[in-house]
């Protein structure tokens, strides 16, 4: 029996129903992976991860007729609406532009005459957030065909469904063009940032500054020499000068600049603890690679350990203000300046560059790490496949260009000036993209409340449409029953029973 109801908020010729009352649903299966030959065929076979809210015209895998016969998968007709049921893809949609088989994580929706697939596609796109709230299960909640069939649908007259789809496609074509332009601006801003950092460290960014400040510029070689003398003094003669960096294969620097290594300018390059640490609700922050982002340490979501456990750690595990952190496991190469005197510790996924007496400006060093030059070096030394790893032995021997202290500050000022403009533009773009998403939902909301296009009194009311669908459904069910009975009798005959 059709579950239908009127709603004073809908146009008078619309009606509420459920998806299961106006469509049939099914799902597929996965042929056994033990039979590799099953996946060497010509029949497109879809997984839920291939649904991307668009027309589907191809598949990643193809199966054989034998695979089709020996599994629960089935061929779904061209034009069928698909909904992903499982995991992170749950609620994603697709419309088949080809005939294809599907796996068990996809629900195929076959509609009766009088319901536009595209109308239902856009409605389910609008309803997705509510649909996800209906998932069941534990760690990875999923949708089921039963949940999909219970989705409430505001049914419009068939002619109005077509007008709504046309209007949505018109509006979204324009909206998508705007979003694409904004995404392009984001990509261009990233390229601009990289260009600024590249020119900062080959001397081009401060080329004019050097011409007008020749009188005050001290050669960077004197700065590097003072770092070495301070280390000799502090280490009471135990420190030995590291050999000069061979710069023949490195880019040519402006006059007065020198090449050095991270090992030369720092007291120690090391990494955090490897042993298990007790976790408590309130205590000393434990900083890991995921907490190092965009030049800063994100303390908000760190785990905490006890004061007692913290005090048992080595000095290498407890960075100090003005040290520089760099991520060495996972997403490698992100860096941050320690800007706080509050105690915290780091685990093995984070390296620390001790800069206790180093006069080189920290913002300059941070920008060096973020520059294309250093990032390219870091990734060229990356080890591992799924989980990338940066060796601190490799990092501390990497070269960095050093200008005078005065020019370091000039570079910092110029980077900040230029990138602050880029940051402001990026914020405008981010806000505009959020507004576009909100506008999309607002358009869909108006569409399915009957406010997007005008109603035509000549349209057949949705209630009549629903009655016809019910009759078609009942007729199909009767035919299905006869087929099933015939099938059983034929099976008995094949098994030696009398018809």
Quick recap:
40% of the residues lie in helices and 16% in strands. Residues 482-499 have low confidence and may be disordered. The longest helix is centred in the middle third of the chain and has 43 residues, at 158-200.
What does the secondary structure layout of this molecule look like, with pairings?
Layout: E1 15-18, H1 19-22, E2 23-27, E3 43-46, E4 54-56, E5 61-63, H2 65-69, E6 75-76, E7 81-84, E8 93-96, E9 100-102, E10 106-111, H3 117-132, H4 145-149, E11 152-155, H5 158-200, H6 207-212, H7 220-234, E12 258-261, H8 262-265, E13 268-271, E14 284-287, E15 292-293, E16 296-297, E17 303-305, H9 307-311, E18 324-327, E19 335-337, E20 345-346, E21 350-354, H10 362-370, H11 372-380, H12 392-396, E22 399-402, H13 405-447, H14 462-494
Parallel strand pairs: 3-9, 4-8, 14-20
Antiparallel strand pairs: 1-11, 2-10, 3-5, 6-9, 7-8, 7-10, 12-22, 13-21, 14-17, 15-16, 18-19, 18-21
Helix pairs in contact: 5-13
């Amino acid at each position: 029996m059709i579950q239908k109801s009127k709603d004073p908020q809908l146009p008078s010729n619309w009606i509420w129903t459920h998806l299961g009352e106006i469509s049939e649903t099914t799902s597929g299966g996965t042929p056994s992976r033990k039979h590799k030959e099953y996946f060497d065929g010509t029949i497109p076979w879809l997984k839920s991860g291939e649904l991307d809210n668009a027309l589907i015209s191809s598949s990643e895998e193809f199966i054989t007729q034998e695979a089709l016969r020996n599994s629960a998968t089935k061929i779904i007709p061209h034009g069928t609406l698909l909904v992903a049921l499982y995991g992170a893809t749950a609620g994603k949609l697709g419309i088949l532009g080809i005939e294809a088989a599907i796996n068990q994580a996809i629900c195929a929706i076959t509609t009766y005459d009088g319901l536009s697939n595209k109308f239902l596609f856009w409605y389910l796109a609008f309803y997705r957030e509510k649909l996800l709230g209906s998932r069941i299960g534990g760690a990875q909640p999923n949708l089921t065909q039963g949940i999909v069939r219970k989705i409430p649908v505001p049914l419009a007259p068939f002619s109005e469904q077509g007008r709504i789809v046309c209007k949505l496609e018109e509006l979204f074509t324009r909206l998508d063009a705007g979003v694409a332009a904004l995404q392009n601006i984001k990509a261009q801003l990233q390229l601009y940032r990289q260009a600024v950092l590249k020119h900062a460290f080959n001397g081009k960014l401060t080329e004019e500054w050097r011409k007008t400040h020749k009188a005050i510029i001290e050669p960077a070689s004197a700065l590097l020499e003072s770092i070495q003398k301070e280390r000799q003094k502090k280490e009471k003669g135990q420190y030995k000068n590291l050999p000069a960096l061979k710069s023949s294969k490195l880019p040519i620097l402006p006059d007065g600049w020198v090449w050095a290594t991270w090992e030369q300018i720092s007291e120690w390059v090391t990494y955090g603890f490897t042993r298990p640490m007790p976790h408590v609700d309130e205590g000393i922050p434990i900083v890991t690679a995921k907490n190092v982002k965009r030049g800063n340490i994100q303390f908000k979501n760190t785990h905490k350990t006890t004061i007692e456990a913290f005090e048992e750690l080595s000095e290498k595990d407890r960075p100090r203000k003005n040290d520089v952190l760099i991520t060495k496991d996972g997403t490698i190469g992100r860096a941050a300046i320690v800007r706080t005197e509050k105690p915290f510790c780091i685990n093995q996924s984070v390296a620390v560059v001790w800069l206790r007496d180093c006069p080189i400006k920290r913002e300059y060093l941070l920008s060096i790490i973020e520059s294309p030059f250093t990032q390219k070096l870091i990734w060229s030394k990356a080890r591992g496949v799924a989980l990338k790893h940066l060796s601190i032995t490799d990092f501390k021997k990497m070269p960095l260009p050093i200008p005078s202290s005065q020019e370091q500050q000039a570079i910092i000022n110029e980077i900040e000036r230029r990138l602050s403009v880029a940051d402001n533009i990026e914020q405008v773009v981010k806000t505009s993209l959020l507004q576009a998403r909100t506008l999309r939902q607002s358009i869909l909301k108006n569409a399915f409340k009957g406010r997007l296009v005008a109603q035509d009194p000549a349209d057949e009311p949705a209630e009549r449409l629903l009655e016809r669908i019910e009759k078609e459904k009942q007729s199909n069910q009767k035919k299905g029953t006869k087929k099933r009975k015939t099938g059983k009798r034929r099976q008995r005959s094949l098994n030696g029973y009398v018809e």
